[in-house]
Amino acid sequence: MKNLFYSLFVTVLCSFSAFAQTEGINFQGLARNAAGEVLVSQPISLRLSILLGSESGAVAYSETRQTTTNPQGIFAVVVGDGTAASKTGDFSSIDWGSAAKFIKVEMDPNAGNNFLTMGSSRMQAVSVAFYAYGVDASNVKGVLPVKSGGTGVASISELKTSLSLDQVNNTADANKPLSTASQAALATKANTADVTASLATKANASDVTASLATKVDKVTGKELSTNDYSTAEKTKLAAITGTNTGDQ
After folding, report:
1. Each residue of 56-96: pLDDT tens digit?
2. Among 10, 13, 105, 219, which has the minimal tally of Cβ within 10 Å of its Cβ?
3. Average pLDDT over residues 182-190
């Protein structure tokens, strides 16, 4: 079984609706027994593991599954498509950009759980994966989630809402946001009730009239105020008659 020959290739590491592909890695291999004979149309068990950094790196994800070889001894599976018999780890959480990835292949030709290691190989991207590096807005269909570098929404209005900007423009004055500093400043200003109460303590028209009545006491015809001149001064001024010649 050490003569198992296998090849692998990456189609996409994420699901793109444009290609109608499911999430996962297409894996294909040719199965042989210990004598080098091709295992034709035969059920086999596989354990496929994604390793981090090297052929002996930590296991990021592992799954076991049964499949059947074709008349040429070839088998084909999709690693991480959710149809495995059992799995360890989360395929969708693998960080494909952080380090090199290797795939380790183990097989039981009798479709049991007695797995023998067939080898490990570094995973290399091919044309479809390279296409993903050059994807731009004109190539993307559907909504790209935030974790993949998108906005997670389908329109500008939804984007404004997700960013809490929907209350900024085209909003009634009563609903527009007000900063905390502005609220604090306004809280120190007098309101209508304060102004009314303050004015109530001020003199009204009748108060002013009564006050002036105590100040205005003029001598008839002379317009002299008792509050402004002494009695002697008023006597002298009252005696002035005729045209002022300068002597007076």
Report:
1. 999 999 999 999 999 999 999 999 998 999 999 999 888 88
2. 219
3. 78
Between CA 41 and CA 120 the distance in angstroms is 24
Residues 19 and 12: beta-carbon distance below 8 Å: yes
Model pLDDT, residue 180: 80
CA dihedral sign of residues 121, 126, 130, 131: negative
The whole-angstrom separation of Cα 23 and Cα 11 is: 9
Rounded Cα gap, residues 54 and 120, in angstroms: 9
How far apart CA 33 and CA 110 sit, in angstroms, is 10
The answer to whether 10 and 123 are in contact (CB under 8 A) is yes
In angstroms, rounded to a whole number, what is the distance separating the alpha carbons of residues 244 and 235? 17
Helix (H) or strand (E) segment spanning residue 50: strand 43-52
Per DSSP, the chain holds a count of helices (H) and strands (E) of 6, 10
CB 106, CB 116: distance < 8 Å: yes
Residue pair 8/121 in contact (Cβ under 8 Å)? The answer is yes
Residue-by-residue DSSP string for 108-164: ETTSSS--EEEEEEE----HHHHHHHT--TTT--SPPPGGGTS-S-SSHHHHHHHTT
* Token pair in block for residue 183: 């609220």
Q: How far apart are CA 187 and CA 89, in angstroms?
A: 57
- The whole-angstrom separation of Cα 28 and Cα 9 is 8
**Tokens matching residue 146:** 């935030």
Task: Provide mean pLDDT across the span 231-246.
Answer: 70
Q: Which residues contact 102 (CB under 8 A, 6 or more apart)?
A: 50, 51, 52, 53, 54, 55, 57, 120, 121, 122, 123
Q: What is d(CA 43, CA 56) in angstroms, rounded to the nearest whole number?
A: 28
